[in-house]
Specification:
283 residues, alpha+beta, L,D-transpeptidase catalytic domain-like, five-stranded mixed sheet, 51% helix, 19% strand, flat
Amino acid sequence: MILRKCTTPSISVQKFIYIEGMKSEKNSVEKLIRILFLLLGVLGLYFLVMAGSAPLRTLKKMNKQAVSDSLFFTKSANLASDSGLFAQARQKAYLNARINLAKTDSIGIIINLSDSLLHLSLKGVIIHTSHITELKTDPFLRALHPLAWLKTFSEPLVAEEEKTSIVKEPIVKKRAPKDTLEAMDMAFLPDTLVQNPAWFSMYFPQGLNLVLVQEQWVTRADKKVERAFQADIRRKRRSDAFHSAFHPGDPRYTPLILIKINIDDVRSIYRALPEKAPVVIGY
C-alpha cells in the first residue's frame, strides 16, 4: 500500500492561521487608532499653546513695531524712559487726539478711563456726558510699552465694524390727526416705540474692541440679548485663537474694553454716532 502525504492543512491549523490573522489585523487597527489619538493630542496641545500665547505674542509685536519706527522712537524715546514724563506724554497724546477729533465734522466718543466718564463731542464741544457705572479693561492695554501706547492712542480710533441690538433710526407709524383737537390729544399719548435691550460693539483696525452695554439685565428679553453680545465676544476670541494657531508669524488678540452705562444713554449715543465713528481713549 502506498501512503500519500496530505498537503491540505487540517481544520485546527486553518483555524489557528485565521485567528492569528484576525489578531494581526486587530493590532494594526489599534496601532492606527493610537497614532491618530496621539496626533490629535499633539495638534490639540499645539493649538492650546499657540492660542494661549497669542496675547503675549501680539503684545510683543505691537511693542516691537513702535520701537522699530525710527522717527517715532526718536521723538518719543526720552518720554517713555521716564515714568513721570510718560504720564505727561500720555496726557498730551490724549489731548492731541481730542484736538484732532475737534477738527472733524463728526460726532465722536471721548472716554477717559481714569475718571469713568464718557462724552459725546462735536467740534470740540461736549454735547453729552455719561457716567460709567462699571468698567472692565483688558490688562493687555496696561501692559503696552509706553511707545506702543502713544503710537496707538495719539489719534482718534475710527471704527471699521459695528454690531448692535439697537435700531439706528426707529420709525414710528402714527395716524394723521383729523383736526387740531385730535392732534392735541395725540401729543399726550404714551410712546409706543418698542425699545430693545441695548448694547453695541465697535471694532478698530488697531485691534481693539469697545463694547457699551446697559447696566442691568433683568427681564428674559434682557438676558437673551446679553447672551447675544457675550456670544459675539466669544466668537471673536475663537476667531483670534484659530488665526493665531494657523498663522504663527501673525498672532492676533483683540483686547476688550467693556463699559456699562445707563440704558437710555447707550441708545442715545449709538443713534447719535455716524458710520465709522471716531473714538478717543485716554487714562
